[in-house]
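If you are new to this repository, start here. Below is one unmodified record pulled from the training split, so you can see the exact layout before writing a loader.
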Amino acid sequence: MKKKPWKKAVVYVIDDDEQVNKAISRLLKAAGYQYETFSSAQEFLDAALKQAEACCALLDIRMPGMNGIELQRHLVEKNSGIPVIFITGHGDVENSVDAFRNGALDFLTKPFNDNQLLASIDKALLKSYEDKFRREMLETARKGYNRLTSREREVFSGVVRGLLNKTIAGMTGITETTVKVHRARVMDKMQALSVAQLVRMSVLLVDAGLIDRDEIKLPER
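And here is the target side for that same chain:
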């Protein structure tokens, strides 16, 4: 079995059918997943959820009070970052369209195939993990970039464009030795472990609209 990138992941199961919760719990336990079950959307929202590097939610459509679609919308509005998989006995076209429009990763009709469900969970957990990693890197990049001086930003621009220290020196009017000093400070303030990571940070900053593409002169993708 392929090794997962996370150390701890949690699957949240929200379904008012106790038998379904038990059946899914047995499946998840046998497959080695950590999980929590809830009998309603409100119970899930009121709970103190376990902290994990990755998570996803399995939602039923029809539940007392807030239904699955409404819960999904709530999670999206709150920017929870929790990927959603629907498991339902009421898989009509309207519900599935609403679910996917709001970003659901899958829509499985009961009785579902166990292997299909586990594959969907793995896909959702990987998305959760990668999204969280991306958000954390973006925040690190944002804080680091705000700490750079104007000269360090010039060097930053040159480095992420793949320019040599000598070329950056010629463009900025400083010595190559000084470029090396600024380059080290840029790496330190941005907490970048490599030039490749620094480039990734620059792309995240541009995509988030925190810096202008022209500011660091990244090529169009």
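Two things worth knowing about this chain: The CA atoms of residues 28 and 118 lie 8 Å apart. Strands lie at 9-14, 34-38, 54-59, 84-88, 106-109.
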